[in-house]
Amino acid sequence: MSKTFPLVKRGVLGYSVSHVDAFIAEARVAYDNQIAGATSLTSTAIRQTSFSSEKGGYSTKHVDGALERLETAFADRERAVALATSGEAHWLEQASIKSAELAARFSREPKHMFRRAGFLVQGYAVKDVDAFASRVRGFLTEGSPLTVADVRSVTFRSSRGGYDEAQVDAVLDAVIDLLLSLGNS
Q: Angle at which helices 126-142 and 88-106 pack, to 10 degrees?
């Protein structure tokens, strides 16, 4: 029996084979469907997809790489549909609004860009997040280079009383949405 992705060793945790296979089958149908809006599967939904783990499951590295490529393909299609249905002026206006909202967030003072986790709660290290925020701000205000891969691959150390992880992750998702809408994959 052929598998979609390489399997990890028998005793090692990987993604659930049945869950990944079901999702990939759904994604193939959704992507092959040429009718705009006929599916609820979007690039954002793909980015937020998670799978349960099982011993001997699919390699997380290979599945995650495929999901990133799938997300980019769906975002490209979403951009093409938006341009065709709403026109370039409307699409650029929406991108400009997203960019302005993000620029306002990343223009906040260092150490005050995001909500803090509780004093005894682990969050993202403020110094790490602020350093990456500087890169994002450079992209938003000066056009400095920034790609989806840059945002996807960033990691932050944990720190007590750091930035709230959920809020930082949500804003980084919005940055990815903007980059994908602009074709900066």
A: 140
143: left (phi over 0), alpha (psi -120 to 50) or beta: left
What is d(CA 167, CA 44) in angstroms, rounded to the nearest whole number? 16
Alpha carbons 10 and 48: distance in angstroms, whole number: 27
Q: What is the mean pLDDT of the chain?
A: 91
Across the range 11-28, mean pLDDT stands at 94
Closest CA to 141 of 181, 91, 106: 106
Among candidates 171, 115, 168, which has minimal Cα distance to 140? 171
Residues 127-141 have pLDDT tens digits of 999 999 999 999 999
Query: Taking the domains of the chain in order of start, what are their residue ranges?
Result: 13-85, 87-182
| Residue 14 structure tokens | 């990987």
Task: Return the number of other C-beta atoms located less than 10 Å from residue 105's C-beta.
Answer: 18
Whole-number CA gyration radius for the chain:
19
CA dihedral 77, 183, 137, 101 (to 10 degrees): -30
Q: What pTM, to 2 d.p., does this model score?
A: 0.80
